[in-house]
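Chapter summary example.
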Amino acid sequence: HVKGAFTGAVRDRPGLLLSANGGLLVLDEIGELGLDEQAMLLRALEEKRFLPLGADREVSSDFQLIAGTNRDLATRVRDGQFRDDLLSRINLWTFTLPGLADRREDIEPNLDYELDQFRRRTGTAVTFSREARDEFLAFAISSSARWPGNFRDLNAVTTRLATLAPAGRVTVDQVKAEVAHLKAAWGTSVRPDRGLVDRLLTPDAIEGLDRFDRVQLEDVLGVCRGAPTLSAAGRALFERSRAKRKIANDADRLRKYLARFGLEWGDLKERLRQAEFRSSNFEV
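The structure predicted for these 284 residues follows.
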């Protein structure tokens, strides 16, 4: 805007479009722009000119744009909330950023990161007991953990656990209470991932599945998706029964289970990654 454009405009303000001239403009949550702002942005992109608020003369700005959103912009176009011509103009290259539920292998290192950030903020170093850490990660990488808020959820969980940790050490009882809280907040106790069976098995293989096997396989694939290794997935899946076996070989049990459906761990993770990439909806 220019000086005097409205009450409080005591000096000119170049704004984002003009400040990005000759460079790069990053607009996060572009789906939240109003229709008037969308029209201004479209003209700035196509003609490299726009009219600042309160100005009599247009200004020029030549910039590259990266736009992010967690909205389905095509749906917003159909609902009249986003301009179809603007979507066509910005949808040149599209990249996906999977949510935390689709990147469960990132949970463990980011748990350590969040604990370190808590230490920096509060000056208090907090750790997990080994049993508490195993309990939390078994839940965090399972299909019961939805993570709808992505890393915001993980930050909140870590902050709660660290703040209430007695003597700076998170306990198993704490983790169990937190897991119960999350399940209640997310409105589910067990929520298997849907669609993985359809994406990974052939139609003939799917047709031959009993309903029981399909539900069980969905849950197993959800755990495999978030586990970094075959052994880690096996530990999460067979945590309770392991103690009852004289010889525990979780990886071999899982390998044999997957083989029943023609699946091998060696290519399963890559196929899951490709399936998640195709299903994500982050627009750039």
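To summarize the output: Residues 189-194, 279-284 have pLDDT under 50 and may be disordered.
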